[in-house]
Every structure is written in structure tokens, then in C-alpha cells.
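assembly run, all chains below
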Amino acid sequence: MTNNNSSFTPRLALVRRLAPALALTSAGMALINVLDRPVNLSASGTAGVANVGDATDAVGMGAAVTGATVPSPTTTQPAPVLTTVPPVTGAVIPDTTPTVASPPNTTTSSTACGAKKSTGSTTDIVDRNRVFGTLVVTAKFASNGELCGVAVNFDVWDRKSVQIEQYALPKLNARAKKAKSANIHGISGATAVSRAYATSLQAAIDAKPL
Amino acid sequence: MVPVNSENFPLPVNKLDQRRPLVRPVVTNLKANDLVVVIIAVFGLVTAAWAMTGGWSQISGGWSNGWRAAASLTGLYTSLCGMVGLMLSARIKTIERAIGLDHLFIWHRIAGDTMGLLLAVHIFTSIPAEMPVRGGFINTVLDFTGREPYMALTAIGSAIVVVVVVLSLKDIRNKVSYETWYFVHLTVYFGLAASFSHQITLGSMLSNDRYVRVVWVATSAAIFSTALFGRWWKVFGSVSRPLHIQAINKETDDTFSMLLGGRNILRLRGDAGQFVMIRLLVAGQWWKTNPYSLSAVPTTAGLRVTIKDRGDASSATRLLRVGNRVAVEGPYGVTTPEIFDTGRPLFIAGGVGVTPVCALLQRLPINSRPTVLLRARHENEVAHLAEIRALANRCGGEVLVLTGRTAALKGKDPFSAKSLLRTVPDLASRVVLVCGPTSLMFAARKGVHEAGVSKSDIHMEMPWW
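ok done. output:
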């Protein structure tokens, strides 16, 4: 028995055999940290409220979602966006930021769309007795009373629904704008949302200000 | 008043002083078929739950939801296979007694391979299922690898599961050392745990129905903790209450036996014909376990194991000294003496495979008349040969040793049905135990079966490695 050898080599043997497992585990953990970038929906997680402007809006989710701090629509954004976006943000999140400076929607009367607005009913997004959340449609009308734009405010309770919403609502907005009514085809894979959207939009159209 | 009788208050004697066999292993009526029925029932139950929580409407509504249905079903089955595999790896006593540790490992491998296949199907069906909702292939893949909550965990978890499954395929596994494979295999705990959350957030069956979800989470947690703690608690117990080497004895040029004893032996139950997993608690060896057959009936004096000096662990045992600590798990195995209740015993053993024969002969009744066929290159190489001869004589049996190199047999197969029948004319009525090198075991089993012995009367430890 040679003590010197036996006390040294076996320890290396363990390290050598343990190495692949440790490498696998640590690579896995590192990759999880790198990959794990869930879609950032709301900073606090309490709101879950997001706006979807109409499909043609240059500002989509990102700007409107942040919730906690309503983006001041002044410096960074290009001018054409200014005319359409502020009414949306101003109209949709008044309760979360009541102290925000009054949005400059009075100045937007020059554009045709958004001269009149009406908000539809708060409708449950329901499928087979399961409620995923609620949705409110704000319809915008041109000065001649024609439906010209739609903004949606939704509040859903799980992240998968948020993704369905993000996918479906811009399309629904575009369809509504094209049809100029609530008589639109639903989106496959988002049946419940389509149904709720049509209901709320119909209510908004019915309540159109004269 | 009851008179005090000294017999009611026996003096506490040291239990180890009275040398007696260890308590026999627990007996169970559980059969392999029962386990299969339970597993199939669980799969059926889950399928029913899936169908009732929306699955049926998916497949009855035409092909448009086919991908989704396939993805959710294979996902559930993948998870179930993982649970079955975990359950088996816990080495639950009753199940081990019913089917034996060898079959436990083989079932475990079947569950693992099935899980790997189903996992692949699950991945490649869930992508097309979600593509319309998530806007194309690229977006779906990005969502499934991190943008969807918990999916980064899941992607890495399933990648680890895939690595573990692939590394366990026989051809690949044989290229790495046992311990390398084993340590990588352990990372499957991480892989399975990491991929659990997405079942709740994305699996519509579980996210839609509260009761199904509660049952599923509870079952998964129970099985995971059974595997984790059940398995490692036993390892911890074997290490914290080790046996000590009582004696080391050289048997032949390349085999030696050692007696493992000490007061901790009283917590073991075992019988002849079983084997133990041995972890030598000496520097450089403590992280390896190796299976060794008991070569004598286990008694309170100790477990005798006979070891051939060949592998790295075995050669290290030459460094052992009396008094060294040895962690013992088991004894495991279902080839206990009861298998010979139904017929006259025939042992076929080769090499160091004589060890369980030696132990079983000690437990055979006096009129059992066993036949022992030994295969070795030289009689000097058979460990415990004198002991086996004496034990066989005691039961009225005989020992036949076939010596010589296999090449010198000139193509005659000593384990063909014909030559076996010439040696043992009443072969068809025997109960056969085969042990030794893998090639010998399978050759002998084939010959014995062809000679008319039913499969249920041929006993051997299936090689699981």
C-alpha cells in the first residue's frame, strides 16, 4: 500500500467524474438567468392593465404599459404620434395617475379622428365559464360620426391571456376600423377576447355622443 | 400480588453475543402485474381528467386543435413517466421485494426512455400548437425559451432531462465511467423540478380546473419528495450507521472475502441469495457504491461478501484493513431460499457468481439434493469450493466443476439444452438459479429454457448496467 498515491489520485478521480454533472448544472443555471426574460407587463404586477392603441398607432404596448409613470408625450416621440397617442393614455389611465397634467387632447381637434369618443361597457372575457379578465373599448369617431379608431383597455389575470390579448387586440382594432362597426370576424385562438371586444364595442357605438 | 419470576425479567444480554440469522426480508403479495395495472390505471385516470377538462372538445372539434391536443397529452404523459421513474428510483421496500432491484432498475430505464421520447414529441407538437397565437415559429420558440414566464426554466430543465436520457442509452453510457454517468444522472432532479412550473401556467387542464390542479401538484410533490428523501435518507442512514470490517480472508489468488459486522447490523433484514450495495468509507472510495452478493447467510456475526479483485473499486479493497467502516445498503434481491420450495435446486454459476450459491446452500433443507454446476478456468479459481462441496454433500447433492478455457471446449456449448440434459437428466423439473458473468447467464438461461424449464423457474439477477 502506497499511501502517497492512494491519498492523492482518488480525489482527482472524484473531481473528474463530478465535473460533467457540475458543468451541466451550472451551465443550466446560467442559461436560465440569461434566457429568463418574461415579457414585462407591469412594473408592480398589481395593475395588469395595458392599453392597446389602434393597429396603426406607432406607439404600441411598450409606451403605454408602464403604468406607474405615464410617459410624458413630449420630447422623444415624433409629432404624428403625439396627435393620436395622448388621448389614449389620458383616457385610459386617469385613475392610476390622477395628478397628471391634463393631456393635450384639446389640441387634437384639428385631426379628423377622435373628435368624439365614447367608452363601451366593461365586459368579461369568458370562455366556458372561466373568466380571464375584463376589457373596455373606447371608440373614437370622426367629426362626421364615423368610427375611425379604437382603443382598448384590458385587465387580465394571467400572463398567457396577456399574450393572447397583445396578439388579438391590434388585429381586432384594425378589423373594427375597416368595418366601421362592431360587426367583425373573431380571431381564431382568441375567441373569448373577440366576443368580449365585439360586445363592448357595440356598447360604445350605441353610446356615441351626438 | 403476582410473584416476581425471574423469567419475566430476563437479564439484558448482548444481542450480538447470540449468533443467529438476521430477520428475514419483508414478504409481500404484490406482483409485477399489480404494479403494471396501477401504472396503466394512473395513465387512464389522467387521460380521463384531460378529456373532461376540455381535451375531448379539442379532439372532437376536428383537426385544427390536433396539435394542441397532442401537445397537452404528451406533456401529461411525459410528466407521468417522470413520476413513475422517480417512484421506482426511491427503491420502495415493497416494490423492491415484489420485482427485485434489477427489474426495478430496468423498469426505471423503460420509464426514462419513454419519457425522453414523449418529451421530444411534446416539444415538437407544442410549437405548431402555439404558432398561430404567438405569431410564427420564431416568436413561439423565443417565447418558449424565456419570454413566457417559467419557460426558460422549462427549456433548460427539459434540455437536462434530454441529456440525462441520452447519456443513459446503453451505447453511450458504456463509454463513460459509472460514476460520471451517475453524477450526471442526479441532475435530473434539477431538470424535473425546473420544468414543473410550466405545467401549471400553460397546461390548460391544470390552469382551468382547480381540483385537478390541487391533486396534480400534491401528487407531484409527494412523489418528488418520496424519491428525493426516501432515496437519500437511506444513503444517509447507511453512512451514519456503518458496519465495520470484522475480518478479511483471502479465498483464491484473486478473490477475498470480508465479514462486515458491528452492532448496526441489527437494523438490517436479509437472507441468503441477496446482495448488498457497498460504499467503502475510506479516502477516495466513499463516493462509489458497488453491488456484492452475500456469500453466506447473513447473521448477527456479520455479512460475508466475496469480492473479485478486478475493477477500480475492488482493487481498492486490498487497501482495506480490519476495522474500516463500510456503508451498506440493502440487502436487495428476490432470489431468496423460498424460490426452491417448488422443486429440486439446480445452480449454474461461473466465476465469482458462486457467492450466492454458497449462501443459498447453507439455507437448503437436508433432503433437497441440489446440483451445482460450476464453470471456471481452473478449480483453484473457484472461491469457497470446499465449502460448497461440504454444503452440497450435507443436503445430498453433488457439485460438478467444468474447467478449462472456453476455446478449449472446441465449439461445444456447455450450456446447450443437450449437454445440460446429459448432465442433469431431470432438468425439466428443477428450479434453476443462474449467476455469473452476463454472457454465461444468458447462455445458461437459453439452454435451460430450451430443455423445458419454464421462465418462472429460472431465477437470475438481470444485469442492469
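The first strand of chain B starts at residue 243 and ends at 250.

DSSP finds 16 helices and eleven strands in chain B.

not gonna interpret more than that til we talk
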